[in-house]
Specification:
8-stranded mixed beta sheet; alpha/beta; 5-stranded parallel beta sheet; Rossmann fold
Length: about 325
């Protein structure tokens, strides 16, 4: 390349750029944009965009007409539904994501939530606050059945963690296939109601696509076991929240732990806040100490590949909305 590529960092101000990554300015022209106006100005002539999710999801679409030289977008997230819009999907711009940065953190988070349910920690802590001593037996996760919806790296990390505790683990993907070293077998998407009915714990680790929107609906919750728990660390819009609330209120499932929601922040008036069998967390399952630095390191590694003409890692199929591994096509 005869000139230094211009890189725009969207949604992150310069003060939060890791100190150890500042040397990248020696090989590229780096500019930061945290508003629509700044992004519109910065995108003109930019070749690369490093996109951090923020509250203004319309920032990039509003400035897209200025992105005439853009060739590659790297997101700081694993999910890309927040950044995809028709013009980007139809363009020749390559999109890569933060795949594999968050796997271990989310797997640990899910494992922790299942243990909270199995060991009865929520009612136990409530009794502690009341100074109430009451014995109760707890459940074992060993021998319990886990269905993981979403069989990419995050789903596989969740499955491996569950296997270590002696759980039976199945997956759910786009199409059915035989089992492997993590999943006893993988159900196809059309089999979700039956697969959910098999499980004691159902974990939603799905990306948001047109095919997964409201995938967990009343029909699925109706097939789940009355003692089953539902955990969502995927995307809120993959769940029909009204149907989930009804299932919880009517005791058709035993509980839910939710890290993602149809609307975020979760509105103060949502019934999910007050249901006794629900754990609410503010979309933090993947946010381990050091994740920002890890995402920047991933970007810098991909940038090195870009500058030397090597294939980029974590390339997203923009029409599907996620990275497709060759063996899973």
């Amino acid at each position: 390349m005869t000139e230094r590529p211009r890189v725009v960092v969207m949604g992150l101000d310069e003060d939060r750029w890791p100190e150890g990554a500042r040397a990248v300015a020696d090989v590229v022209d780096l500019e930061f944009a945290t508003s629509r106006e700044a992004l519109a100005g910065a995108l003109s002539g930019a070749e690369i965009l490093f996109a951090w999710p923020g509250e203004d999801r319309g920032m990039l679409p509003a400035a897209w007409s200025r992105a005439t030289r853009l060739r590659w977008i790297q997101t700081a997230s694993d999910g890309v539904d927040w950044i995809l819009f028709p013009e980007l999907v139809e363009s020749h711009v390559v999109l890569t994501n933060g795949r594999r940065v968050f796997d271990a953190a989310i797997a640990e988070y899910v494992l922790g939530l299942m243990l909270v349910f199995a060991k009865g920690w929520v009612p136990m802590l409530e009794r502690q606050r009341r100074h109430e001593w009451r014995h109760r037996d707890t459940e074992l996760l060993a021998g319990k059945r886990l269905l993981v919806a979403g069989v990419g790296p995050i789903g596989r990390a969740i499955g491996r963690a569950a296997l270590a505790l002696g759980m039976e683990v199945r997956g759910l993907g786009r199409t059915p296939r035989p089992g492997d070293d993590v999943f006893e077998l993988v159900h196809g998407a059309a089999e979700l109601p039956d697969a959910a009915g098999w499980a004691d714990y159902v974990v939603d680790a799905l990306p948001l696509t047109e095919g997964t929107r409201a995938m967990f609906d009343a029909a699925v919750f109706a097939r789940m076991r009355p003692n089953a728990r539902f955990v969502n660390v995927g995307r809120g819009a993959t769940v029909d929240e009204e149907a989930l609330v009804r299932a919880l209120r009517e005791g058709r499932i035993a509980g839910a732990a939710l890290d993602v929601f149809e609307e975020e922040p979760l509105p103060a008036g949502s019934p999910l806040w007050d249901l006794p069998n629900v754990i609410v967390s503010p979309h933090i399952s993947g946010d381990f100490a050091g994740w920002r630095e890890a995402v920047v390191e991933l970007f810098l590694a991909n940038l090195a590949r870009y500058l030397t003409g090597q294939p980029l890692e974590n390339v997203v199929d923009k029409r599907l909305g996620y990275v497709v591994e060759p063996r899973l096509r």
